[in-house]
């Protein structure tokens, strides 16, 4: 299936692009056009890999848009499975799509996820005048009347924003998640507008989407879905400290071909850790609204396996996949 996807979307064109970049020892594929999150990941991490002398020559960035990341994934699996000098930008969208079979039969175990070194934290937000003061207040209200709370989010039904409140509710002991109302709108700003206007009772999204609304006092964040409180937003409690063991962040990281050696996989993990530990990367995170979130090597791969399993389970429960 993956080979068919590559062929359908232009194998010869991809190979010509790759051949043209052979002067660089390391290549980072951004599975989208220039300017997006995956492009940012490749360019920023690639720059620091070279600036910190972790690679011998500048990292070549190749933009390979198509199928929401599926084209690049299929290309790596079918054409570059043993390429030890290839890294590929990834995020929570990558694992969500893999879990929901959105890459034409491709599965997450066809590559190796090497690490994440920053994240846009997930949040659950209500209007400033909402009666819900804590995440627990909201969960208890939904348990009592599942139709009483509707969430607005910027992803499609079954997407990452939709999954966040479902994870929280499951962690709180609510199992009939098909009864949860979710309204998909065009982006986080629209989702917040829906909530401020009283059309929905809550917004599910990312920290970067709510900063301006928090500063203006129009919304109140009930929880941030990180392991620890986010620097600069220490007033927002985590879901975990409120009794809901959920971490849901739009992480920024990399995967590598499955066929590379274990030694090379660990080496990439060490290089990514070095980037994460650098003052330059910390400055990049602050400048771009990212929160600390570092998992590399086998630790990250194990975490990804758990995330995908949870996403598959939730996706089946709400009918996104069979």
Task: Describe the model.
Residues 1-23 have low confidence and may be disordered. This protein is of the alpha/beta class and 322 residues long. The protein is built from twelve helices and ten strands. The chain has helices spanning 2-8, 11-20, 37-51, 70-79, 92-99, 135-144, 160-171, 188-196, 207-216, 262-277, 279-287, 297-317; strands at 27-30, 60-63, 86-91, 111-127, 150-153, 181-184, 202-206, 219-224, 249-257, 291-296. Strands 1, 2, 3, 4, 5, 6, 7, 8, 9 and 10 form a ten-stranded mixed sheet that branches. The longest helix is centred in the last third of the chain and has 21 residues, at 297-317. The protein has two domains: 2-119 and 249-317, Bordetella uptake gene, domain 1 (D-Maltodextrin-Binding Protein, domain 2, 3-Layer(aba) Sandwich); 121-242, Periplasmic binding protein-like II (D-Maltodextrin-Binding Protein, domain 2). Helix 1 crosses helix 4 (70-79) and helix 5 crosses helix 12.
Main CATH class of the largest domain? Alpha Beta
Low-confidence stretches: 1-23
How much is the radius of gyration in Å?
Answer: 20 Å
Largest sheet: 10 strands, mixed
Superfamily (CATH H level) name of the largest domain? Bordetella uptake gene, domain 1
Number of strands: 10
Going by CATH, the architecture of the largest domain would be 3-Layer(aba) Sandwich
Average of per-residue pLDDT values: 90
Count of separate structural domains: 2
DSSP strand content: 15-25%
Chain oligomer state: single chain
The number of helical runs is 12
Secondary-structure element order, N to C:
HHEHEHEHEHEHEHEHEEHHEH
